[in-house]
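Sequence only, no structure available. Ideas?
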Amino acid sequence: MKNSDIFVRLSDKLRSALEARAEEIGLNVPELFRFLFLIDLRYPEKFKPDKGYGVTEGSLTKIRVDGSTRKRIAEQAKMHGLTRSRYLRSIAIRELEKYTDFVE
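Reply:
I predicted one. Tokens follow.
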């Protein structure tokens, strides 16, 4: 299946925290997002949406996924009433909150 990109807007604070977390476990940020999505599929009851609905500042992060993963991300996001970007940002923030005292 064809690969495609999903773009997630991250604040500088969130980006640097994700980079540190990804480095701790030997991944880069896009790989960390794919990993977190797979965890969320397995344990969806732990999901909670982030509070930063309209993040307008910060940079975009490109996450390359295959078509079936993109579709599953869209389904999960829709199930929670979120966009793909906000859904992915939410699972990233949840990961950081588990292991650090991160607050966006």
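Strands lie at 3-10, 59-66.
Hope that gets you unstuck.
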